């Protein structure tokens, strides 16, 4: 037995409304089932994964075709926006940020480590604590300014 009203409701919810769907000859013979979507979609789960997910949902929680299409279009638009930002270099990958931060950290370390060996002879002859502080302060400031300009 078939619930006619429920079947019509599900049909309306899960079919295209603009009449532009493409039908394969086999689908026409079976009764208006649209072709599979393009294979170019990004991050498509496997059919088994989708089937497992859908079979685990109660019927009232399975989104309709229109809702699913809206979500897909939304995420495709978001991916296109992120691609455009990346091409304009307004968005960079986390790997690039890590690489640049690591490079700067190494540069800071190298500039600070060289201060004692570069100034050891001067410091050995100095007696005045204020002069030693001023020399070290000047060296550290110089190193940091060099990084800021890099």
Structure description:
Helix 5 runs antiparallel to helix 6. Among the domains are: 48 residues, no CATH class; 56 residues, no CATH class. The longest helix has 32 residues. It is rod-shaped, with a radius of gyration of 33 Å. It contains six helices and no strands. With 150 residues, it is mainly α.
Shape: rod-shaped
Structural class: mainly alpha
CA-atom Rg in angstroms: 33 Å
The stretches of 5 or more residues where confidence is low (pLDDT under 50) are: 32-42
How many E-type strands?
0
If you average the pLDDT, what whole number results? Answer: 78
- Our estimate of the beta-strand percent is under 5%
Note the total helix count: 6
Order of helices and strands: HHHHHH
Distance between the termini: 77 Å
Query: Helical amount among residues, as a percent range?
Result: 55-70%
Largest sheet: none
Short description:
The protein contains 6 helices and no strands. With 150 residues, it is mainly alpha-helical. Helix 5 runs antiparallel to helix 6.
């Amino acid at each position: 037995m078939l619930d006619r009203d429920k079947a019509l409701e599900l049909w309306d919810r899960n079919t295209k409304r603009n009449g532009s769907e493409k039908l394969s000859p086999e689908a026409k013979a079976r009764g208006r089932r649209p072709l599979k979507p393009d294979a170019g979609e990004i991050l498509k789960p496997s059919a088994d994964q989708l089937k497992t997910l859908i079979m685990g949902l109660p019927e009232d929680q399975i989104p309709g075709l229109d809702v699913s299409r809206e979500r897909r279009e939304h995420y495709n638009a978001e991916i296109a926006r992120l691609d455009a930002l990346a091409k304009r270099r307004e968005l960079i990958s986390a790997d690039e940020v890590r690489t640049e931060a690591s490079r700067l950290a190494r540069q800071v370390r190298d500039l600070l480590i060289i201060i004692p060996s570069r100034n050891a002879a001067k410091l050995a002859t100095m007696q005045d604590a204020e002069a030693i502080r001023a020399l070290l302060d000047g060296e550290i400031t110089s190193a940091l300014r060099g990084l800021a300009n890099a």
